[in-house]
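Lab notebook, bench 4. Continuing the backlog of folding jobs that were queued last week. Each job is logged with the same field layout so the records can be merged later without manual cleanup. Today's entry covers Putative ABC transport system permease protein, a 845-residue chain. Filled in by technician R.K.

JOB TYPE: sequence-to-structure
TARGET: Putative ABC transport system permease protein
LENGTH: 845
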Amino acid sequence: MWRAALKSLLGRKVRLLMSTFAIVLGVAFVAGSLIFSDTLSRSFTALFASTVGDVVVRPVGGQTASGTLSSLTVPASVIKELEDVPGVARVDGNVSAFGVYVVGEDGKVIGGLGPPALGVNYNDAPAAGGEGLELVEGEAPSGIDEIALDEATAEKAGYEIGDTVPLLTPRGDSKLSPTLVGLAGFPDGGSLNGATLTMFDTATAQELFLEGRDEYNDVWVTAEDGVSQEELRDAVEDLLPDGIEAVTGDEAADESASQLLEAVSFITTFLLIFAGIALVVGSFLIVNTFSILVAQRSRELALLRALGASKRQVVRSVQLEAFVLGVIGATIGLGLGVLLAMGLRVLFAQFGLDLSGQPMVFGVRTVLASYLVGVLVTMAAAWLPARRTAKISPVQAMRDDIALSESSMTTRFWRGLALAVVGMVLLAIGLGDIVDDVPYSGQMIGAGVLFILLGVAAMSPVISRPFLSAARALFARLFGSMGNLAGQNSLRNPRRTTATASALMIGLALACTMAIVGDSAKASVDKSVEESFVGDYVVSNVFGGEFNPSIADQMAGVDGVEAVLRQRYQFQDFGGEGISAIDPATVDLLELKVVDGDLADFEDGSVIVQESYAEEEGLDVGDPVEVEVPTGKTKWPVAAIYEDNPIIFLPVVTTLTMMEKAGYEPADNALTIFAEPGADDLQAGLDAVVAELPIVTVKDQAAFAKEQREPIDQFVLIIFALLGLALIIAVLGIVNTLALSVIERTREVGLLRAIGVSRSQLRWMITLESVVISVLGAVLGVILGIAFGVVLMYAVRDEGLEVISVPYGQLGVFLALSVLIGMLAAVLPARRAARLDVLQAIATE
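JOB STATUS: finished
OUTPUT FIELD FOLLOWS
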């Protein structure tokens, strides 16, 4: 039996090729995701190990929960005291700032998306990891007119030593033009992973980022030989004043790396989800392929049964073929996964996450996961047709054609219906939980969608009969006898037809869902901007970060400006959401609808909160709100409760003064500009203020709405690109099914040619069969996609996405493309059928 199975496999190499390709693509996505994830983890771990000293002395609350620096610092007097501690080799103070952007020769900002733009003071303190940044060319900067850059940033910007480098700073002078005097890098290999690094001398960094105070953001303490990090930390701790802490370099590096890796972990999850989709779609192709091949081998298997082979042996022989196929597919997929990981590295480099300095990490888990996924998915998919074949008696298998009985399809229908009902229940629970932020809601939604898709796929041989019958009648009317034959061939084995269509159904269902989500999100943005937009212009950072507060002062002086409203945000510090701040003197300009309390009571030391948040937390006017800020936990009483407003999208609003006292840097996130009545050409005056600041833009209502829609468009395009993998597999499934069907019907094709059917008529018949399959999959996919999209948007209608918009034009394009897919998928199978030798085909058994 083992020998027979292997010979059968070798005898059908071409037929199994596209099934293998489905496994290859799915495994490649799994392997590529894991390799990229491991490379990302290794890179950040190595990076942070090179950016800490043996012991790091820092203020408690020196970093906000979102990873930015607070305004808390370490006084220089601490350094002098630490220098005399036994076991201390040297002590170095560090000044750091986010938002120091390098402007390239082309006038564009380097970086900005993702990895930070850092400004620091230069020192040559040794890193705990032993591979810190060092000057590799030039000299250290001295004075405000000199800087050093990391090599990668200088290369991207097009600067060499001696060039003048335009800089944008978060505070102080908005723009500087120092001279590049040095380049820094990792002599032993390493990378900043896309971050940009600008280095000043210590006095200049303190002047720019700490208002000239003799203070530091943190301090590195270097140990003498033979002194461990723990021993040095213990010796240092006793001398530190309240509010200052000491941690080992290893602890600081692990903490920073863990926070960042947790923040970017969604990348791996995101990619693995699409790997799963590809494998599910590929499973349909494998099931269909093995079903056809096993049916074609029915006589062969019947003879084996007649010679004494048991049902179990027949199943095992098919499973052996699947095992070999899975191993081959996993091996090729593993190799392709390495290339995919390299491609992901290049792709994410376009968004600022540059891992080019880090070699790819090929871990053991990647190999194990790839083979487990490839082999298990293939064997599981092949088990169903193998089990079904084992139930066929030797005498029954001698017949020319074997199809599922009506009772079998009816059983499949009821099982599929039960599966779909379970999926609906899971989907309802998950969508209800996601609104209430209950754990595992995402998994519930994913499982619900999968069960519904599988349920519909199981029911499709029954529910698709009216469609297939209508297609046969339409084709017969439009294309005559060839159209009638194509329709009858689709109806001959509805299970096979619908199984092939189901692969396309899954991809298009998800694509349609995302199309509706994207279109609804954009429509909701337009509506909220139209209803809630106040003022005449919005000023913001193109990277979504902070910008110099002096810009607001300059814009307030532009002719025609009546008022400027500042907004500042801090994310993830308050219940996982964040806090914002405005000036109480300008709060009336927001035109908030107050439901309780009075905005006149909003002052330093108090907050105003959104209505939905107040209801969720059970807050009334006067109740204290406990907030975790860099200076520690504090309580602010509620002065007023207002209706939710997208202009202030964070739930708790305090004053600018309290934000600064809480330990946050005084930098603005957005400005709303109010024009005086009759002011003309105000945009030109505002643009002039930021003419030399490419990171800050001025937008009217239409431009602001467009800016809010752009991330949605980008996200949907990425989703479509990833779903394209599933659609490619689905198209391969149609090609494979048609090709195997032609082989299965070789004798029938020969008879058609013998009675006068021309080659072009034969090609047209097979093309129509392909169109039926693809259109059926598209119709089912679009219907399910509309249902998923509408239900999903309805479930989150209270989360700011109030508009449900179905892009019927886009869905129509999907249906039109399905016809094109069907015609293209039929090219090779139709060509093969047309080229069959008539006499040999008739003689085929």
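OBSERVATION: The first strand starts at residue 55 and ends at 59.
SIGNED: R.K.
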